[in-house]
Amino acid sequence: MKLRELVRDIPCRVTGNTDIEIRGMQYDSRKVQPGDLFFCIKGFATDGHQYAKKAVEQGAVCLMVSEPQEIEGVSQIIVEDGREGMALLSAAFYGHPARQLRMVGVTGTNGKTSTTYMLKSIFEQEGSKVGLLGTIQNMIGDRVLHTERTTPESMDLHKLLREMADDGVDTVVMEVSSHSLVLKRVFGIAFAGAVFTNLTQDHLDFHGNFENYQAAKALLFAASQNSAINIDDPHGDFMRKAAAGKVNTYSAKGEADVMARDIQLGTDGCRFIMKTSGATLPILMNIPGMFSVYNALSAITISFMLGVDMMHIKLGLLAVKNVPGRFQQLDTHGGDYSVILDYCHTPDSLESTLKTVRGFARGRIVCVFGCGGNRDNLKRPIMGEIAERLADLAIVTSDNPRFEEPMEIIGQILAGMKKDNHVVIENRRDAIRYALEHAQKDDVIVLAGKGHEDYQEIRGVKHPFDEKVIVEELLAELGR
Ligand SMILES: CC(=O)N[C@H]1[C@@H](OP(=O)(O)OP(=O)(O)OC[C@H]2O[C@@H](n3ccc(=O)[nH]c3=O)[C@H](O)[C@@H]2O)O[C@H](CO)[C@@H](O)[C@@H]1O[C@H](C)C(=O)N[C@@H](C)C(=O)N[C@H](CCC(=O)O)C(=O)O
Ligand SMILES: Nc1ncnc2c1ncn2[C@@H]1O[C@H](COP(=O)(O)OP(=O)(O)OP(=O)(O)O)[C@@H](O)[C@H]1O
Ligand SMILES: N[C@H](CCC[C@H](N)C(=O)O)C(=O)O
Ligand SMILES: [Mg+2]
Question: Motif Meso-diaminopimelate recognition motif in this chain: where (predicted)?
Fold first, then answer.
Protein backbone atom coordinates (compact mmCIF):
# COMPACT_ATOMS: atom_id res chain seq x y z
CA MET A 1 0.00 0.00 0.00
CA LYS A 2 1.28 3.47 -0.85
CA LEU A 3 2.08 5.68 2.16
CA ARG A 4 -0.11 8.43 0.70
CA GLU A 5 -3.10 6.10 0.67
CA LEU A 6 -2.35 4.70 4.11
CA VAL A 7 -2.45 8.07 5.87
CA ARG A 8 -5.39 9.51 3.90
CA ASP A 9 -7.90 9.45 6.79
CA ILE A 10 -5.46 9.52 9.71
CA PRO A 11 -4.97 12.66 11.82
CA CYS A 12 -1.20 13.10 11.37
CA ARG A 13 1.56 15.05 9.64
CA VAL A 14 3.85 13.33 7.16
CA THR A 15 7.40 14.24 6.22
CA GLY A 16 9.40 12.76 3.33
CA ASN A 17 8.28 10.87 0.26
CA THR A 18 4.63 9.73 0.40
CA ASP A 19 4.87 7.81 -2.85
CA ILE A 20 6.70 4.88 -1.23
CA GLU A 21 5.25 1.41 -0.88
CA ILE A 22 4.63 0.10 2.66
CA ARG A 23 5.03 -3.69 2.57
CA GLY A 24 4.43 -4.49 6.22
CA MET A 25 4.32 -3.03 9.73
CA GLN A 26 6.19 -3.71 12.97
CA TYR A 27 6.32 -2.28 16.49
CA ASP A 28 9.34 -4.32 17.56
CA SER A 29 12.59 -3.27 15.87
CA ARG A 30 13.95 -6.78 16.22
CA LYS A 31 11.37 -8.04 13.74
CA VAL A 32 11.61 -5.30 11.09
CA GLN A 33 11.88 -6.45 7.47
CA PRO A 34 12.83 -4.35 4.40
CA GLY A 35 9.89 -2.22 3.24
CA ASP A 36 8.24 -2.08 6.69
CA LEU A 37 6.74 0.82 8.56
CA PHE A 38 8.16 0.88 12.11
CA PHE A 39 5.92 2.17 14.93
CA CYS A 40 7.92 4.00 17.61
CA ILE A 41 5.94 3.36 20.80
CA LYS A 42 6.78 4.88 24.17
CA GLY A 43 6.51 2.00 26.62
CA PHE A 44 6.93 1.43 30.33
CA ALA A 45 10.29 -0.29 30.07
CA THR A 46 11.75 1.55 27.10
CA ASP A 47 10.94 3.99 24.28
CA GLY A 48 10.52 2.61 20.76
CA HIS A 49 11.98 5.86 19.35
CA GLN A 50 15.36 4.62 20.58
CA TYR A 51 15.23 1.82 18.04
CA ALA A 52 14.24 3.96 15.05
CA LYS A 53 17.76 4.04 13.63
CA LYS A 54 18.19 0.30 13.98
CA ALA A 55 14.81 -0.26 12.29
CA VAL A 56 15.88 1.91 9.35
CA GLU A 57 19.19 0.01 9.10
CA GLN A 58 17.15 -3.16 8.86
CA GLY A 59 15.15 -1.74 5.96
CA ALA A 60 12.24 0.21 7.46
CA VAL A 61 11.14 2.78 4.86
CA CYS A 62 8.83 4.73 7.14
CA LEU A 63 8.60 5.55 10.85
CA MET A 64 5.52 6.42 12.85
CA VAL A 65 6.66 8.73 15.63
CA SER A 66 5.28 11.02 18.28
CA GLU A 67 8.68 12.72 18.40
CA PRO A 68 10.17 13.39 14.95
CA GLN A 69 13.56 11.73 14.42
CA GLU A 70 16.61 13.18 12.74
CA ILE A 71 17.16 10.32 10.35
CA GLU A 72 17.86 10.85 6.64
CA GLY A 73 16.09 9.07 3.82
CA VAL A 74 13.06 7.81 5.67
CA SER A 75 9.47 9.08 5.63
CA GLN A 76 7.91 9.90 8.99
CA ILE A 77 4.28 9.88 10.11
CA ILE A 78 4.00 12.21 13.08
CA VAL A 79 1.11 11.54 15.44
CA GLU A 80 0.02 12.87 18.85
CA ASP A 81 -0.38 9.50 20.52
CA GLY A 82 1.70 6.56 19.34
CA ARG A 83 -0.67 3.82 20.43
CA GLU A 84 -3.69 5.53 18.86
CA GLY A 85 -1.67 6.10 15.71
CA MET A 86 -0.65 2.46 15.55
CA ALA A 87 -4.28 1.32 15.99
CA LEU A 88 -5.58 3.60 13.23
CA LEU A 89 -2.74 2.95 10.79
CA SER A 90 -2.87 -0.81 11.20
CA ALA A 91 -6.67 -0.82 10.73
CA ALA A 92 -6.18 1.12 7.49
CA PHE A 93 -3.29 -1.07 6.34
CA TYR A 94 -5.33 -4.25 6.75
CA GLY A 95 -8.38 -2.70 5.05
CA HIS A 96 -10.52 -2.05 8.16
CA PRO A 97 -11.46 -5.70 8.74
CA ALA A 98 -13.45 -4.86 11.91
CA ARG A 99 -15.93 -2.95 9.74
CA GLN A 100 -16.73 -6.20 7.88
CA LEU A 101 -17.25 -8.16 11.08
CA ARG A 102 -19.85 -8.24 13.83
CA MET A 103 -17.53 -7.41 16.73
CA VAL A 104 -18.55 -8.49 20.23
CA GLY A 105 -16.25 -7.59 23.14
CA VAL A 106 -16.34 -9.01 26.66
CA THR A 107 -14.75 -7.25 29.60
CA GLY A 108 -14.73 -7.67 33.39
CA THR A 109 -12.38 -9.07 36.01
CA ASN A 110 -13.66 -12.65 35.79
CA GLY A 111 -15.66 -14.64 33.28
CA LYS A 112 -14.38 -13.17 30.01
CA THR A 113 -12.96 -16.38 28.58
CA SER A 114 -15.92 -18.45 29.75
CA THR A 115 -18.43 -16.00 28.27
CA THR A 116 -16.66 -15.84 24.90
CA TYR A 117 -16.86 -19.64 24.63
CA MET A 118 -20.60 -19.46 25.33
CA LEU A 119 -21.05 -16.71 22.74
CA LYS A 120 -19.09 -18.61 20.12
CA SER A 121 -21.34 -21.59 20.61
CA ILE A 122 -24.51 -19.45 20.43
CA PHE A 123 -23.47 -17.65 17.24
CA GLU A 124 -22.47 -20.97 15.68
CA GLN A 125 -25.94 -22.34 16.36
CA GLU A 126 -27.20 -19.38 14.42
CA GLY A 127 -25.08 -20.48 11.45
CA SER A 128 -22.31 -17.91 11.81
CA LYS A 129 -18.63 -18.58 11.28
CA VAL A 130 -17.08 -17.24 14.47
CA GLY A 131 -13.63 -15.93 15.28
CA LEU A 132 -12.55 -16.03 18.92
CA LEU A 133 -9.79 -14.08 20.62
CA GLY A 134 -8.80 -14.61 24.21
CA THR A 135 -6.57 -15.87 26.96
CA ILE A 136 -6.44 -19.55 26.06
CA GLN A 137 -6.17 -19.31 22.29
CA ASN A 138 -7.47 -17.56 19.21
CA MET A 139 -9.76 -19.49 16.88
CA ILE A 140 -11.01 -19.15 13.34
CA GLY A 141 -14.00 -21.47 13.33
CA ASP A 142 -12.42 -24.71 14.63
CA ARG A 143 -8.88 -23.75 13.66
CA VAL A 144 -6.77 -22.95 16.72
CA LEU A 145 -4.09 -20.26 16.72
CA HIS A 146 -1.62 -19.71 19.53
CA THR A 147 -1.81 -16.48 21.50
CA GLU A 148 0.48 -14.72 23.94
CA ARG A 149 -1.92 -12.01 25.12
CA THR A 150 -5.58 -11.97 26.15
CA THR A 151 -6.12 -9.02 23.82
CA PRO A 152 -3.44 -8.63 21.14
CA GLU A 153 -1.56 -5.44 20.29
CA SER A 154 -3.60 -3.37 17.78
CA MET A 155 -1.37 -4.24 14.84
CA ASP A 156 -1.58 -7.97 15.55
CA LEU A 157 -5.31 -7.64 16.15
CA HIS A 158 -6.08 -6.05 12.78
CA LYS A 159 -3.86 -8.56 11.00
CA LEU A 160 -5.76 -11.39 12.64
CA LEU A 161 -9.15 -9.79 11.94
CA ARG A 162 -8.16 -9.51 8.27
CA GLU A 163 -7.30 -13.22 8.23
CA MET A 164 -10.64 -13.97 9.89
CA ALA A 165 -12.66 -11.84 7.45
CA ASP A 166 -10.85 -13.41 4.47
CA ASP A 167 -11.59 -16.85 5.88
CA GLY A 168 -15.34 -16.25 5.92
CA VAL A 169 -15.74 -15.27 9.57
CA ASP A 170 -18.72 -12.96 10.08
CA THR A 171 -18.75 -12.63 13.89
CA VAL A 172 -15.84 -12.11 16.27
CA VAL A 173 -16.11 -12.61 20.01
CA MET A 174 -13.16 -11.26 21.90
CA GLU A 175 -11.97 -10.71 25.43
CA VAL A 176 -11.10 -7.08 25.95
CA SER A 177 -8.71 -6.77 28.89
CA SER A 178 -8.40 -3.58 30.89
CA HIS A 179 -4.75 -3.38 29.83
CA SER A 180 -5.81 -3.40 26.21
CA LEU A 181 -8.32 -0.59 26.74
CA VAL A 182 -5.76 1.64 28.43
CA LEU A 183 -3.05 0.73 25.92
CA LYS A 184 -5.43 1.47 23.01
CA ARG A 185 -5.20 -2.01 21.50
CA VAL A 186 -8.87 -1.79 20.41
CA PHE A 187 -8.86 1.96 19.77
CA GLY A 188 -11.08 2.94 16.82
CA ILE A 189 -13.01 -0.34 16.67
CA ALA A 190 -16.78 0.08 16.63
CA PHE A 191 -18.24 -2.85 18.55
CA ALA A 192 -21.69 -4.19 17.74
CA GLY A 193 -21.94 -5.60 21.25
CA ALA A 194 -20.13 -5.31 24.57
CA VAL A 195 -20.52 -7.32 27.76
CA PHE A 196 -19.70 -6.36 31.35
CA THR A 197 -19.25 -9.40 33.59
CA ASN A 198 -18.07 -7.93 36.91
CA LEU A 199 -15.40 -5.82 38.54
CA THR A 200 -13.43 -6.94 41.57
CA GLN A 201 -9.88 -6.63 42.78
CA ASP A 202 -7.09 -7.32 40.28
CA HIS A 203 -4.42 -5.55 38.27
CA LEU A 204 -3.99 -2.63 40.67
CA ASP A 205 -0.27 -2.87 39.97
CA PHE A 206 -1.04 -1.60 36.47
CA HIS A 207 -3.99 0.72 37.04
CA GLY A 208 -2.77 2.28 40.29
CA ASN A 209 -6.20 2.40 41.91
CA PHE A 210 -9.66 0.93 41.56
CA GLU A 211 -11.16 4.07 39.98
CA ASN A 212 -8.70 3.88 37.10
CA TYR A 213 -9.41 0.17 36.68
CA GLN A 214 -13.14 0.87 36.53
CA ALA A 215 -12.67 3.76 34.07
CA ALA A 216 -10.56 1.49 31.83
CA LYS A 217 -13.32 -1.13 31.62
CA ALA A 218 -15.91 1.57 30.88
CA LEU A 219 -14.10 2.57 27.67
CA LEU A 220 -15.50 -0.51 25.96
CA PHE A 221 -19.11 0.54 26.52
CA ALA A 222 -18.45 3.98 25.06
CA ALA A 223 -17.40 2.21 21.86
CA SER A 224 -20.31 -0.18 21.48
CA GLN A 225 -23.75 0.05 19.88
CA ASN A 226 -25.20 -2.44 22.36
CA SER A 227 -24.12 -3.17 25.92
CA ALA A 228 -25.13 -6.01 28.24
CA ILE A 229 -24.48 -5.01 31.84
CA ASN A 230 -24.44 -7.08 35.04
CA ILE A 231 -26.53 -4.90 37.28
CA ASP A 232 -25.97 -7.15 40.33
CA ASP A 233 -22.38 -5.94 40.31
CA PRO A 234 -21.91 -2.71 42.29
CA HIS A 235 -20.05 -1.24 39.31
CA GLY A 236 -22.75 -2.11 36.77
CA ASP A 237 -24.36 1.29 37.06
CA PHE A 238 -21.08 3.03 36.26
CA MET A 239 -20.78 0.96 33.08
CA ARG A 240 -24.38 1.68 32.17
CA LYS A 241 -23.75 5.42 32.43
CA ALA A 242 -20.61 5.13 30.33
CA ALA A 243 -22.42 3.29 27.54
CA ALA A 244 -22.97 5.22 24.32
CA GLY A 245 -25.48 2.89 22.69
CA LYS A 246 -28.40 0.77 23.79
CA VAL A 247 -28.12 -0.91 27.21
CA ASN A 248 -29.81 -4.04 28.55
CA THR A 249 -29.15 -5.13 32.10
CA TYR A 250 -29.11 -8.65 33.52
CA SER A 251 -29.56 -9.93 37.04
CA ALA A 252 -29.83 -13.19 38.94
CA LYS A 253 -31.23 -11.42 42.00
CA GLY A 254 -33.61 -8.58 41.16
CA GLU A 255 -35.31 -6.76 38.33
CA ALA A 256 -33.47 -6.31 35.03
CA ASP A 257 -34.06 -6.63 31.31
CA VAL A 258 -32.88 -10.25 31.44
CA MET A 259 -33.26 -12.24 34.65
CA ALA A 260 -32.47 -15.72 35.94
CA ARG A 261 -35.09 -17.37 38.15
CA ASP A 262 -35.45 -20.83 39.75
CA ILE A 263 -31.70 -21.37 39.64
CA GLN A 264 -30.62 -24.94 40.34
CA LEU A 265 -26.93 -25.65 40.80
CA GLY A 266 -25.73 -29.22 40.37
CA THR A 267 -22.38 -31.00 40.45
CA ASP A 268 -22.07 -31.19 36.67
CA GLY A 269 -24.09 -28.23 35.53
CA CYS A 270 -26.82 -25.77 36.24
CA ARG A 271 -30.29 -24.87 35.08
CA PHE A 272 -32.46 -21.80 35.38
CA ILE A 273 -35.38 -20.00 33.81
CA MET A 274 -34.40 -16.99 31.75
CA LYS A 275 -37.03 -14.27 31.95
CA THR A 276 -37.48 -11.04 30.03
CA SER A 277 -40.54 -8.78 29.97
CA GLY A 278 -41.89 -10.73 27.00
CA ALA A 279 -40.46 -14.23 27.22
CA THR A 280 -39.31 -17.08 29.42
CA LEU A 281 -36.85 -19.78 28.40
CA PRO A 282 -35.51 -22.76 30.37
CA ILE A 283 -31.72 -22.90 30.16
CA LEU A 284 -29.61 -25.99 30.83
CA MET A 285 -25.81 -25.99 30.86
CA ASN A 286 -23.12 -28.55 31.48
CA ILE A 287 -20.93 -26.13 33.43
CA PRO A 288 -21.47 -25.86 37.18
CA GLY A 289 -21.38 -22.87 39.50
CA MET A 290 -23.33 -19.72 40.14
CA PHE A 291 -20.70 -17.85 38.14
CA SER A 292 -21.73 -19.90 35.11
CA VAL A 293 -25.29 -18.66 35.52
CA TYR A 294 -23.96 -15.10 35.40
CA ASN A 295 -21.77 -15.80 32.39
CA ALA A 296 -24.73 -17.39 30.60
CA LEU A 297 -26.94 -14.40 31.45
CA SER A 298 -24.39 -12.06 29.95
CA ALA A 299 -24.16 -14.15 26.78
CA ILE A 300 -27.95 -14.39 26.54
CA THR A 301 -28.42 -10.65 26.99
CA ILE A 302 -25.99 -9.57 24.30
CA SER A 303 -27.00 -12.23 21.78
CA PHE A 304 -30.63 -11.30 22.32
CA MET A 305 -29.77 -7.64 21.67
CA LEU A 306 -27.98 -8.67 18.48
CA GLY A 307 -31.08 -10.43 17.22
CA VAL A 308 -30.21 -14.10 17.84
CA ASP A 309 -33.35 -16.13 18.33
CA MET A 310 -34.15 -17.82 21.63
CA MET A 311 -33.80 -21.37 20.38
CA HIS A 312 -30.27 -20.77 19.08
CA ILE A 313 -29.34 -19.22 22.42
CA LYS A 314 -30.70 -22.18 24.34
CA LEU A 315 -29.03 -24.76 22.08
CA GLY A 316 -25.79 -22.81 22.03
CA LEU A 317 -25.56 -22.82 25.82
CA LEU A 318 -26.48 -26.48 26.02
CA ALA A 319 -23.66 -27.31 23.59
CA VAL A 320 -20.90 -25.60 25.60
CA LYS A 321 -18.71 -28.20 27.22
CA ASN A 322 -16.19 -27.42 29.87
CA VAL A 323 -14.01 -24.46 28.95
CA PRO A 324 -10.39 -25.72 29.20
CA GLY A 325 -8.97 -25.12 32.67
CA ARG A 326 -12.23 -23.66 34.00
CA PHE A 327 -13.74 -25.95 36.60
CA GLN A 328 -12.27 -28.87 34.69
CA GLN A 329 -12.63 -32.23 36.40
CA LEU A 330 -9.50 -34.38 36.01
CA ASP A 331 -9.48 -38.17 35.79
CA THR A 332 -8.37 -39.80 39.04
CA HIS A 333 -8.58 -43.28 37.52
CA GLY A 334 -11.20 -44.57 39.87
CA GLY A 335 -9.91 -42.70 42.93
CA ASP A 336 -12.49 -41.99 45.64
CA TYR A 337 -11.62 -38.28 45.61
CA SER A 338 -11.81 -35.68 42.86
CA VAL A 339 -9.45 -33.13 41.34
CA ILE A 340 -10.67 -29.89 39.80
CA LEU A 341 -8.49 -27.62 37.72
CA ASP A 342 -9.58 -23.98 37.75
CA TYR A 343 -8.13 -20.68 36.57
CA CYS A 344 -9.21 -18.72 39.65
CA HIS A 345 -6.35 -16.31 40.22
CA THR A 346 -8.29 -13.39 41.72
CA PRO A 347 -9.96 -13.09 45.14
CA ASP A 348 -13.46 -13.11 43.67
CA SER A 349 -12.91 -16.09 41.38
CA LEU A 350 -11.20 -18.09 44.16
CA GLU A 351 -14.15 -17.37 46.41
CA SER A 352 -16.76 -18.29 43.82
CA THR A 353 -14.96 -21.51 42.87
CA LEU A 354 -14.49 -22.66 46.47
CA LYS A 355 -18.12 -21.81 47.28
CA THR A 356 -19.26 -23.77 44.25
CA VAL A 357 -17.24 -26.76 45.45
CA ARG A 358 -18.64 -26.34 48.96
CA GLY A 359 -22.09 -26.64 47.44
CA PHE A 360 -21.54 -30.28 46.52
CA ALA A 361 -18.43 -31.54 48.36
CA ARG A 362 -19.09 -34.48 50.68
CA GLY A 363 -15.54 -34.53 52.05
CA ARG A 364 -12.77 -32.00 52.63
CA ILE A 365 -11.86 -29.25 50.23
CA VAL A 366 -8.11 -29.09 49.64
CA CYS A 367 -6.99 -25.98 47.81
CA VAL A 368 -3.57 -25.79 46.15
CA PHE A 369 -2.86 -22.19 45.20
CA GLY A 370 -0.35 -19.37 44.91
CA CYS A 371 -0.25 -15.90 43.38
CA GLY A 372 1.49 -14.71 40.23
CA GLY A 373 4.62 -12.60 40.50
CA ASN A 374 4.91 -9.08 39.00
CA ARG A 375 1.17 -8.69 39.30
CA ASP A 376 -1.15 -7.02 41.81
CA ASN A 377 0.33 -7.85 45.24
CA LEU A 378 -2.59 -6.47 47.24
CA LYS A 379 -4.69 -9.48 46.26
CA ARG A 380 -2.27 -11.92 47.91
CA PRO A 381 -3.35 -11.69 51.59
CA ILE A 382 -7.00 -11.47 50.52
CA MET A 383 -6.66 -14.76 48.63
CA GLY A 384 -4.92 -16.28 51.67
CA GLU A 385 -7.89 -15.38 53.86
CA ILE A 386 -10.39 -16.76 51.33
CA ALA A 387 -8.52 -20.06 51.02
CA GLU A 388 -8.31 -20.66 54.77
CA ARG A 389 -11.96 -19.71 55.24
CA LEU A 390 -13.44 -21.78 52.44
CA ALA A 391 -11.06 -24.74 52.21
CA ASP A 392 -10.43 -27.35 54.89
CA LEU A 393 -6.78 -27.49 53.95
CA ALA A 394 -4.90 -24.86 51.95
CA ILE A 395 -1.59 -25.81 50.34
CA VAL A 396 0.16 -22.53 49.67
CA THR A 397 2.59 -22.75 46.78
CA SER A 398 3.93 -20.89 43.73
CA ASP A 399 1.97 -19.77 40.69
CA ASN A 400 4.06 -18.03 38.00
CA PRO A 401 6.66 -16.27 40.16
CA ARG A 402 8.00 -14.42 37.11
CA PHE A 403 10.78 -12.14 38.44
CA GLU A 404 9.76 -12.22 42.11
CA GLU A 405 11.06 -14.46 44.90
CA PRO A 406 8.47 -17.24 45.38
CA MET A 407 8.87 -17.26 49.18
CA GLU A 408 8.24 -13.51 49.32
CA ILE A 409 5.00 -13.91 47.42
CA ILE A 410 4.03 -16.75 49.73
CA GLY A 411 4.87 -14.57 52.74
CA GLN A 412 2.41 -11.95 51.51
CA ILE A 413 -0.29 -14.61 51.08
CA LEU A 414 0.37 -15.92 54.60
CA ALA A 415 -0.03 -12.40 56.00
CA GLY A 416 -3.76 -12.80 55.35
CA MET A 417 -3.99 -16.22 57.03
CA LYS A 418 -4.84 -16.42 60.72
CA LYS A 419 -5.86 -20.07 61.03
CA ASP A 420 -3.54 -23.07 60.97
CA ASN A 421 -5.30 -25.14 58.30
CA HIS A 422 -2.53 -24.67 55.80
CA VAL A 423 0.87 -25.99 54.78
CA VAL A 424 3.48 -24.25 52.65
CA ILE A 425 5.16 -26.20 49.84
CA GLU A 426 6.87 -23.79 47.51
CA ASN A 427 7.51 -26.19 44.64
CA ARG A 428 4.14 -26.45 42.87
CA ARG A 429 4.66 -29.99 41.65
CA ASP A 430 5.49 -31.10 45.20
CA ALA A 431 2.42 -29.25 46.47
CA ILE A 432 0.19 -31.16 44.05
CA ARG A 433 1.95 -34.39 45.00
CA TYR A 434 1.24 -33.68 48.68
CA ALA A 435 -2.45 -33.12 47.94
CA LEU A 436 -2.73 -36.36 45.95
CA GLU A 437 -0.67 -38.40 48.41
CA HIS A 438 -2.83 -37.32 51.34
CA ALA A 439 -6.16 -37.43 49.51
CA GLN A 440 -8.92 -38.98 51.63
CA LYS A 441 -12.24 -40.42 50.55
CA ASP A 442 -14.55 -37.73 49.10
CA ASP A 443 -11.88 -35.01 49.17
CA VAL A 444 -12.16 -32.41 46.44
CA ILE A 445 -8.71 -31.12 45.48
CA VAL A 446 -8.87 -27.73 43.77
CA LEU A 447 -5.79 -26.82 41.74
CA ALA A 448 -6.33 -23.09 41.59
CA GLY A 449 -4.82 -20.36 39.47
CA LYS A 450 -3.13 -21.91 36.46
CA GLY A 451 -6.06 -23.52 34.65
CA HIS A 452 -5.22 -24.11 30.97
CA GLU A 453 -1.63 -22.84 31.27
CA ASP A 454 0.93 -25.43 30.21
CA TYR A 455 3.95 -23.66 31.63
CA GLN A 456 5.32 -22.10 34.79
CA GLU A 457 7.06 -18.80 34.21
CA ILE A 458 10.20 -18.35 36.31
CA ARG A 459 12.64 -15.49 35.65
CA GLY A 460 11.53 -15.00 32.06
CA VAL A 461 11.63 -18.70 31.19
CA LYS A 462 8.46 -20.70 30.59
CA HIS A 463 9.08 -24.21 31.94
CA PRO A 464 6.71 -26.98 30.81
CA PHE A 465 4.04 -27.28 33.51
CA ASP A 466 0.69 -28.66 32.45
CA GLU A 467 -1.30 -29.63 35.54
CA LYS A 468 -3.36 -32.19 33.62
CA VAL A 469 -0.15 -33.98 32.67
CA ILE A 470 1.42 -33.50 36.10
CA VAL A 471 -1.57 -35.07 37.85
CA GLU A 472 -1.34 -38.07 35.49
CA GLU A 473 2.40 -38.43 36.17
CA LEU A 474 2.03 -38.08 39.93
CA LEU A 475 -0.83 -40.58 40.10
CA ALA A 476 1.37 -43.08 38.25
CA GLU A 477 4.35 -42.33 40.53
CA LEU A 478 2.24 -42.66 43.65
CA GLY A 479 0.51 -45.77 42.36
CA ARG A 480 -2.91 -44.24 43.07
C1 LIG B 1 1.82 -3.66 30.71
C2 LIG B 1 1.72 -4.09 29.30
O3 LIG B 1 0.72 -4.59 28.86
N4 LIG B 1 2.82 -3.91 28.57
C5 LIG B 1 2.82 -4.18 27.14
C6 LIG B 1 3.52 -3.03 26.46
O7 LIG B 1 4.81 -2.99 26.99
P8 LIG B 1 5.57 -1.63 27.16
O9 LIG B 1 4.68 -0.50 26.79
O10 LIG B 1 6.22 -1.60 28.49
O11 LIG B 1 6.70 -1.79 26.05
P12 LIG B 1 8.28 -1.62 26.22
O13 LIG B 1 8.86 -2.92 26.58
O14 LIG B 1 8.58 -0.43 27.06
O15 LIG B 1 8.69 -1.29 24.71
C16 LIG B 1 8.25 -0.11 24.03
C17 LIG B 1 8.30 -0.36 22.56
O18 LIG B 1 9.67 -0.58 22.15
C19 LIG B 1 9.72 -1.71 21.35
N20 LIG B 1 11.08 -2.29 21.38
C21 LIG B 1 11.61 -2.74 22.54
C22 LIG B 1 12.89 -3.30 22.55
C23 LIG B 1 13.62 -3.40 21.34
O24 LIG B 1 14.75 -3.88 21.26
N25 LIG B 1 13.04 -2.91 20.21
C26 LIG B 1 11.79 -2.36 20.20
O27 LIG B 1 11.32 -1.97 19.15
C28 LIG B 1 8.64 -2.61 21.89
O29 LIG B 1 8.24 -3.59 20.93
C30 LIG B 1 7.53 -1.59 22.16
O31 LIG B 1 6.79 -1.34 20.99
O32 LIG B 1 3.57 -3.24 25.07
C33 LIG B 1 4.28 -4.44 24.71
C34 LIG B 1 4.29 -4.53 23.20
O35 LIG B 1 3.02 -4.70 22.71
C36 LIG B 1 3.61 -5.66 25.34
O37 LIG B 1 4.34 -6.83 25.03
C38 LIG B 1 3.54 -5.48 26.85
O39 LIG B 1 2.83 -6.55 27.42
C40 LIG B 1 3.46 -7.13 28.59
C41 LIG B 1 4.55 -8.12 28.16
C42 LIG B 1 2.45 -7.84 29.48
O43 LIG B 1 2.81 -8.70 30.27
N44 LIG B 1 1.20 -7.51 29.40
C45 LIG B 1 0.15 -8.13 30.26
C46 LIG B 1 0.10 -7.53 31.65
C47 LIG B 1 -1.21 -7.92 29.59
O48 LIG B 1 -1.35 -7.16 28.64
N49 LIG B 1 -2.19 -8.65 30.09
C50 LIG B 1 -3.57 -8.58 29.59
C51 LIG B 1 -4.46 -9.56 30.33
C52 LIG B 1 -4.82 -9.09 31.67
C53 LIG B 1 -6.07 -9.80 32.17
O54 LIG B 1 -6.07 -11.01 32.33
O55 LIG B 1 -7.08 -9.13 32.45
C56 LIG B 1 -3.66 -9.00 28.15
O57 LIG B 1 -4.52 -8.46 27.42
O58 LIG B 1 -2.97 -9.97 27.79
N1 LIG C 1 -18.73 -14.49 36.32
C2 LIG C 1 -17.79 -14.91 37.15
N3 LIG C 1 -17.69 -14.40 38.42
C4 LIG C 1 -16.73 -14.80 39.26
N5 LIG C 1 -15.82 -15.75 38.97
C6 LIG C 1 -15.86 -16.29 37.74
C7 LIG C 1 -16.83 -15.90 36.77
N8 LIG C 1 -16.63 -16.62 35.65
C9 LIG C 1 -15.56 -17.40 35.88
N10 LIG C 1 -15.10 -17.23 37.14
C11 LIG C 1 -13.93 -17.83 37.80
O12 LIG C 1 -12.80 -17.14 37.27
C13 LIG C 1 -11.89 -18.04 36.63
C14 LIG C 1 -11.43 -17.42 35.34
O15 LIG C 1 -12.53 -17.39 34.44
P16 LIG C 1 -12.32 -16.84 32.98
O17 LIG C 1 -11.09 -17.41 32.44
O18 LIG C 1 -13.58 -17.03 32.23
O19 LIG C 1 -12.10 -15.29 33.33
P20 LIG C 1 -11.28 -14.18 32.55
O21 LIG C 1 -12.00 -12.92 32.86
O22 LIG C 1 -11.14 -14.54 31.15
O23 LIG C 1 -9.86 -14.20 33.25
P24 LIG C 1 -8.48 -13.55 32.67
O25 LIG C 1 -8.55 -12.10 32.98
O26 LIG C 1 -7.40 -14.19 33.44
O27 LIG C 1 -8.39 -13.85 31.23
C28 LIG C 1 -12.67 -19.32 36.42
O29 LIG C 1 -11.79 -20.40 36.45
C30 LIG C 1 -13.66 -19.30 37.55
O31 LIG C 1 -13.07 -19.78 38.71
N1 LIG D 1 -4.17 -12.69 32.59
C2 LIG D 1 -3.74 -12.85 33.96
C3 LIG D 1 -3.41 -14.26 34.15
C4 LIG D 1 -2.94 -14.64 35.53
C5 LIG D 1 -2.72 -16.10 35.65
C6 LIG D 1 -2.03 -16.53 36.88
N7 LIG D 1 -1.64 -17.89 36.71
C8 LIG D 1 -0.82 -15.65 37.17
O9 LIG D 1 0.22 -15.93 36.61
O10 LIG D 1 -0.94 -14.72 37.97
C11 LIG D 1 -2.55 -11.94 34.21
O12 LIG D 1 -1.68 -11.86 33.32
O13 LIG D 1 -2.52 -11.31 35.24
MG1 LIG E 1 -9.54 -14.60 29.95
Answer: 399-402
**337-383 pLDDT tens trace:** 999 999 999 999 999 999 999 999 999 999 999 999 999 999 999 99
Closest CA to 118 of 195, 187, 22: 195
Residue 323 lies in a domain: no
CATH of the domain at 337: 3.90.190.20
Residue 64 belongs to domain spanning: 3-93
Distance of alpha carbon 185 from alpha carbon 155, whole angstroms: 8
pTM attached to this predicted model:
0.94
Nearest CA owner, ligand 3 atom 4: 345
* Shortest-distance atom of ligand 3 to CA 372: 10
Atom of ligand 1 minimally distant from the CA of 151: 57
345/376 Cα distance (integer angstroms): 11
Q: Do 376 and 253 share a structural domain?
A: no
Q: Which of 318, 342, 363 is the last residue of a domain?
A: 318
Whole-number Å distance between alpha carbons of 355 and 31:
47
Q: Is the pLDDT at 49 greater than 90, yes or no?
A: yes
Q: What is the pLDDT of residue 419?
A: 96
Ligand 2 centroid distance, CA of 134 (Å): 12
Name residues whose C-beta falls within 8 Å of residue 243's C-beta, 6 or more positions apart in sequence: 194, 221, 222, 224, 227, 229
Q: Which band of pLDDT confidence, cut at 50, 70 and 90, is reported for residue 324?
A: very high
Work out whether the CA dihedral 186, 188, 190, 194 comes out positive or negative. positive
Q: Are 118 and 302 in contact (CB under 8 A)?
A: no
Residues 116 and 52 in one domain: no
Residues with CB under 6 A from ligand 1: 27-30, 41, 43-46, 48, 51, 149-151, 153, 177-180, 183, 206
Section 33-58 average pLDDT: 97
Going by alpha carbons, the residue nearest to atom 7 of ligand 3 is: 450
Which of 318, 341, 372 is at the close of a domain?
318
Residue nearest to ligand 2 atom 15, measured at CA = 111
Task: Starting from the CA of residue 109, give the closest ligand.
Answer: 2
Of 149, 197, 220, which is best to mutate to test ligand 1, by the most ligand atoms within 8 angstroms of its C-beta? 149
What φ, ψ does residue 243 adopt, rounded to 5°?
-70, 140
Residue 250 within any structural domain of the chain: yes
Residues 346, 399 within the same domain: yes
ipTM of the complex: 0.95
For 135-185, what is each residue's pLDDT tens digit?
Answer: 999 999 999 999 999 999 999 999 999 999 999 999 999 999 999 999 999
- Asked whether residue 77 falls in the same domain as residue 129, the answer is no
Say how many domains are in the chain: 3
Distance (angstroms) between ligand 3 centre and the Cα of 345 equals 7
